[in-house]
């Protein structure tokens, strides 16, 4: 099997196992689904962090308004009264006015925090260095873990307008957000190997990476129109640091040699022309001082 080290731009993403016989038009949707799925996990984790601090999301018509404005307009958060966390809540106002301030109790916060930590570890980029493969099944397990934790804390479910619930139900609207710029459309995604695009026109992976089935290659995922990504550096960052350290140590050694006096060796005992004569007469290691008897 071939191991694909998938990158986006110059950043590690994940390792994916496939075969040389896999058509490119089948491979691209699988890789893109994992990439977008990992983004989804991180978006949900970010929102659950806010959920643990400030409670459920306010309705769109109330979001961002002050308490006086809400009272003046006679608006009410009916879903906030229905969707309360298990074990009660504390009042912790959201400084930006997105959530209703009904913070879950400490025990329920811990449930959410642990789920966030575990889910992030399951799809972490550091798994590349650990030589661990990524699959769409692992991404789905991370999503299920987060969903289960939210269900424990909010058995009555979250309001239908809450972003977390919309993400779980795959009806989220990312238009106009920074997150929408990160998502890659599977229909137009591009995959690159050695600076060359891997086209979908009935070609297989082996047509680009060679005929050795048991190999590991770096491929880069990009959006359509972004152009070819930068080539991989000749040496890794760690190798470059080691080379620079070696060059520095060598430079310091040469500097010390240049500062040394060329005839300094004349002060050495082995360079004394009378050394043999002194040995015969027993004149080595003789010390004296003026006035000694």
General description of the model:
- The protein is an alpha+beta fold.
- The model has no long low-confidence stretch (mean pLDDT about 85).
- The protein has helices at about 25-55, 65-70, 80, 105-120, 135-155, 165-170, 180, 205-210, 235-260, 275-280; strands at about 1-10, 10-20, 90, 100-105, 190-195, 195, 215-220.
- A five-stranded mixed β-sheet has the order 2-1-7-5-6, with helices on one face. Strands 3-4 form a two-stranded antiparallel sheet.
Give a short synopsis of this structure.
The protein is an alpha+beta fold. It is built from 10 helices and 7 strands.
Task: List the keywords.
five-stranded mixed sheet, flat, 10 helices, 7 strands, alpha+beta, two-stranded antiparallel sheet, 42% helix, single chain, 293 residues
H and E order: EEHHHEEHHHHEEHEHH
Q: List the uncertain runs.
A: none
Question: DSSP helix count?
Answer: 10
* Estimated share of beta-strand residues: 5-15%
| Residue-averaged pLDDT | 86
Overall structural class, as computed from helix and strand content, comes to alpha+beta
Cα-to-Cα separation, first versus last residue:
92 Å
> Number of DSSP strands?
7
Alpha carbon gyration radius: 34 Å
Going across the biggest sheet, name each strand in turn.
Answer: 2-1-7-5-6
Largest sheet: 5 strands, mixed
General shape? flat
Helix amount, in percent? 40-55%
List the helices and strands and how they pair.
Blueprint: E1 2-8, E2 11-18, H1 24-54, H2 67-72, H3 78-82, E3 89-91, E4 102-104, H4 106-122, H5 136-153, H6 163-168, H7 178-182, E5 190-193, E6 196-197, H8 206-209, E7 216-222, H9 237-259, H10 275-281
Parallel strand pairs: 1-7
Antiparallel strand pairs: 1-2, 3-4, 5-6, 5-7
